[in-house]
Amino acid sequence: MASFSLPTINDNPDGGWGPSSSNLPPQFKFKDIPYAPYAKTDKLGRFADWNDISGDNRPQNAAQAPGSGATRGGAGGGRRGRDGQPAFGSGTASAFAYFHVEDESSFSLVDNKASTVRRGGGMSRGRGGGRGGASYANRGMGQRGRGGFNAGRGGAQRGARRGWRDWERSGRNREASVAISPEWSMLEEVEFHRLAKLRLDVDEPEELGSYGRVYAWEKSYDRITTKNEQPLHLVDRIKYNTTTSDDPVIQELASKETATVYTTDVILSVLMCAPRSVYPWDIVIVREGNKLFLDKRDGGPFDTVTVNENAADPPQDPTAANPNNPNEKIVVPDTPSINSATSLSLEATYINQNFGFQSVIETPPPAPVDFSKPNPFYGPDETEPLASCGYRYRLFDLGVTEDENIKICVRTEVDAFSAGQGINPRLGQGLVTIRALNEFDPRAQGAGGAPDWRTKLDAQRGAVVATEMKNNSCKLAKWTVQSVLAGADLMKIGYISRANPRDNTRHVILSTTSTRPTDFAAQLNVSLANGWGIVRTVTDLCMKQPEGKYVLVKDPNKPVIRLYSVPLTAFTAEEDEDDVPFDGEELESAA
């Protein structure tokens, strides 16, 4: 059995705390400890000033501490008192200096920035330091010198406070475009940086058929300026945006085994420009035998137009309660803000549709151009007038080698034709796509630093275009890809603003620009080869899976897309509910 012995206890016969100096153990005696002399006039303050670690100015003992009569000396480490005479004991060796004796050859400095030395008399707080000094603001938060506030290297102006109500800022989490069910199983996950490295060159497509009727572009809209702005009218026309599986022409082509993949230009442009997207989206993929159908959901993100998606501080919807304060009540406004993300998206969709309807000539001359077949979605019972729209079904070859037979059938759209040019709808000569950019309020949150169009659009159009290319990079890239897929000669872009920044119901047309889609793609740095590489990669991922239904989802907060396997009954309940007609009471309550 192990023995236990009590340690030796040294009592203090004087009645004080701790051992007395007479019976102090040998191991606790201060042996070989040098004595640092100091004068009686030296004021003992802090023992060391760790803010100053430069050169020979490190304090050697208490007499050199800041606040004492001995101030920092020169190269010899000499200390002088307030009267200029050498301090007592300044000539002795630095007995308390620390010397590291271990090998430091393996040590490497990671941060090579010069350390901040505070030479001022006091520590300044808040926005900046003194005339010749540095403060907290110089440590990456911006500094205030003689010329005012200047942003430091990597710092924010005026010293931004980080962590304050971060849950309210644009970096907060977004909700997914579709609710991920626990029954779904994730099959693949691909990061955007991997998608950006893909590349596939595709030859000119084959024309499978053209449907619909297009009107001539009204050339007077090319001469609109901010001085003779034109109002935007509400035009009642029908334009169809049917998903892939419900397209009767695609169903007929699929029955003939025309292609491997079937989709529309709206869906395909989102996939080809996926690395630019910030907002969430989802594509429903159905594999039937050796065929893939890329569909959209009714009411999903493909039916609306985004606004300032790529801005540093994009528009936001009303926020919920602070998650850090569960007792805080959620206050939902009765009328949502007209500058919220949802309201701006609906406003932009309304503007795009009506600008396309208004800017064409429906009354001859010139006469409209009819494609080879009529509109496939306009039934004989329809009485409302059709919008100017032409559908071109085109076949692209995605095969890498001659032995591969992977083709994609795309339904593309054009909105008008340019009168006075040689018109050949089959070859796409003279065809035009019409789009519109909208300005809501340059001073509102989410404007992305856009200049005032009424003052800058005529004189400094380049600045306006550059800002829109930065704030709406994904939207402009999708429009350009759609125009290239449709084989359009020109793309007309209208600049439309609110008549009053506080009213989102009245708009005016300030200007219109015309550009070739291929040239605009080069300005936007849009690579069609990269887009086709993404499409081929997604096709290969889906063709490895068995027959069934899948969903390709863009993560709402990360640059990642994920492929999920979903039941065949997924999304059918939503469509059945949408197809149920309103009765009288429901219609009245909805109104």
Automatic annotation (TrEMBL):
Keywords: Cytoplasm, Initiation factor, Protein biosynthesis, RNA-binding. Its main location: cytoplasm. Residues 119-133, 142-157 have a biased composition (Gly residues). GO terms for biological process: cap-dependent translational initiation; formation of cytoplasmic translation initiation complex. It comes from the Eukaryota. Transmembrane segments: none annotated. It is found in: Cytoplasm. Residues 1-11 have a biased composition (Polar residues). Residues 301-315 are annotated as: RNA gate. Component of the eukaryotic translation initiation factor 3 (eIF-3) complex. mRNA cap-binding component of the eukaryotic translation initiation factor 3 (eIF-3) complex, which is involved in protein synthesis of a specialized repertoire of mRNAs and, together with other initiation factors, stimulates binding of mRNA and methionyl-tRNAi to the 40S ribosome. The eIF-3 complex specifically targets and initiates translation of a subset of mRNAs involved in cell proliferation. In the eIF-3 complex, eif3d specifically recognizes and binds the 7-methylguanosine cap of a subset of mRNAs. This is Eukaryotic translation initiation factor 3 subunit D.
